[in-house]
Amino acid sequence: MLKIKNLHANINDKEILKGIDLDIKAGEVHAIMGPNGSGKSTLASVIAGKEEYEVTKGNVILNGEDLDDMAPDERAHKGIFLSFQYPVEIPGVSVTNFIKTAINETRKANKQEEISAKDLLKKIREKAELLEIDRKFLSRSLNEGFSGGEKKRNEIFQMAMLEPKLAILDETDSGLDIDALKIVANGVNKLKNKDNAIIVITHYQRLLDYIIPDYVHVLHQGKIVKSGGKELALELEEKGYDWLK
Amino acid sequence: MSKYTEDDLKKELETKEYEYGFYTDIESDKFPIGLNEEVVRAISKKKNEPEWMTEWRLESFRIWQSMTEPDWANVTYQKPDFQNISYYAAPKKKPELESLDQVDPELLKTFDKLGISIDEQKRLSGVAVDIVMDSVSVATTFKKTLEEKGIIFCPISEAIQKHPELVKKYIGSVVPQTDNFYAALNSAVFSDGSFCYIPKGVKCPMELSTYFRINEGGTGQFERTLVIADKGSYVSYLEGCTAPQRDENQLHAAVVELIALDDAEIKYSTVQNWFPGDKNGKGGVFNFVTKRGLCETNAKISWTQVETGSAITWKYPSCVLKGDNSIGEFFSVAVTNNHQQADTGTKMVHLGKNTKSTIISKGISAGKSQNSYRGLVQIHARADNARNFSQCDSLLMGNDCGAHTFPYIEAKNKTAKIEHEATTSKIGEDQLFYCNQRGIDMDKAIALIVNGFSKEVLNKLPMEFAVEAQKLLEISLEGSVG
């Protein structure tokens, strides 16, 4: 599904990613771990197409298509979803209105008709239940005055509504207490299927107790220094990152 | 990787051109340029006005001559040469029409371009439209329905003929001839406008609506609107306008007077889209408007405005809360782009006891524009327990525009309670990226953010107007062609 080849990326002329290779197939969950400043969030932003990062070498290929020339919204239309580490506030725009706009813009780009009010409502009801979201929450301004946990839950709710092919969860566990973490992880697990793939970016092993990865990669100074199965996460938890440097 | 920096965003905003730029080719009866007592007399004569009206105009003219153009507003512009303007233009084929078939087809085409075909208006929403096209009203609809309720809704020139006692009593009662330079000028030369009277206890069954349009090159437009809501009545009045694109500056100095007698309520909503000038700041309408309402006991006046046009806007819809327990409200969204300058806000004058006022102002600046809020909250000595709440929010796009807030507060009564809140924010790249990542493109993202920012005000507009206003906000800011 997603192939990353020898990816190098800069921000303000400083090289952050120094040659990343990744191969993610449909139905897989990959965890990317690493210390602060190793380039985890940069990788997520580069895949999503954030402008301030400049790709200097290498490619990101989604289902055989090079994403290089695509704007972030076009990438989203192709099925890339990023759950933000720090979701932004948009005052006056309700969660429902925002999601409806996002769904319809994506459908429009893919030459589909707008979703009917009835279908949208049904879907909202279903996914809100899955993530134990109170209906009142949906009429609030997007992320405005949300607690850290509410923001993250809202990100996963959007993921559930948009049904992406590739979801990148950037430190979704930060700011969540254990109960919220379980709800979110449970939601993600239910959204997982053989046709989509998930990249989980995290500092800690904790989230990986609930979302079980097929592969774990350790990022250090802009490179993947070690890859392995889920047991690698446990090893990291025990030993820290120093032994890999 | 494709890039979309703030510079690109700015560039895109600058490429927005005026959508409603076109002329209508209708023969027109027009005065030569210049202003003196003879011209004032001639205007009055042209309209067959009674002598008291002619005298009132002349008095206004003399007052105007003794005044100087104010320059305290936060705007800079080349002052108009008042002797280089024609003060009267009327469509030549002056129609007295029974049906739309009799309307000049050119005119109908213009309405189509504006998307306000009277035909549609008639059939749809139950909105009665009094269309002011170059100073003389050429079509009035729904008159009969209104007549049955005793509601008078007609061009002010007609009201002067048919209801002189009402006009004589109220014209200049809220905005006196001496009020300011532009109001004095308007009083002297006003061409036409709308008149509305709601009788005692009557709730006007439909939104009353007027579309203004400047159509004749070099013709200043001086509209005069007078709305009187008698005791216990209610009316919602909509005013919207677009103007054709042109090179020279056009002067627009309107006066709107609202009178809400005891227990009456007036809602006055405006969507303003005068030609703002091109992206280099050339051309555009100068909009110097005096709008004021008077509230008697338990009365309420709400001003709601969405301002997107004009090169220069100088406008302060105000409320004089004379009666006890009266309420004044002001809800405003003002958008400036390119070289537009807006100095707009409100005055809330609390004279009566337990009077309340609310001010919500949202300013959006883009391009090289300057957007100022200027507001005065005045609590007089006998206004016990007066309350005011003001909120002024500014949204900036790019680094070359400005947002300014000038709130004045004068309280002469210790029991007054006055609150003022203000915020300034900038549309951030993070917000835009977040929207983009969800599949929402740049234009739509800006529209979404701006509409969210303006929501509290847009919610106050009548439904059909709110949709139009939202579209206007998008057009004014997106400017992304393709």
UniProtKB/TrEMBL annotation, chain A:
GO molecular function, one term: ATP binding
Domain ABC transporter: 2-244
Coiled coil regions in record: 103-141
Top-level lineage group: Bacteria
UniProt KW keywords: ATP-binding, Coiled coil, Nucleotide-binding
Family, per entry: Belongs to the ABC transporter superfamily. Ycf16 family.
NCBIfam families found in the cross-reference section: sufC (TIGR01978)
The protein, known as: Fe-S cluster assembly ATPase SufC
Species whose genome carries this gene: Aureibaculum marinum
Gene for this chain: sufC
TrEMBL record, chain B:
Record-annotated SUF system FeS cluster assembly SufBD core domain positions: 212-453
Coiled coil: none
An example Gene Ontology biological process: iron-sulfur cluster assembly
Residues annotated as domain SUF system FeS cluster assembly SufBD N-terminal: 128-204
Pfam families xrefs: SUFBD_core, SufBD_N
PANTHER family xrefs: FES CLUSTER ASSEMBLY PROTEIN SUF, UPF0051 PROTEIN ABCI8, CHLOROPLASTIC-RELATED
Similarity section: Belongs to the iron-sulfur cluster assembly SufBD family.
Protein name: Fe-S cluster assembly protein SufB
Origin species: Aureibaculum marinum
Name of the encoding gene: sufB
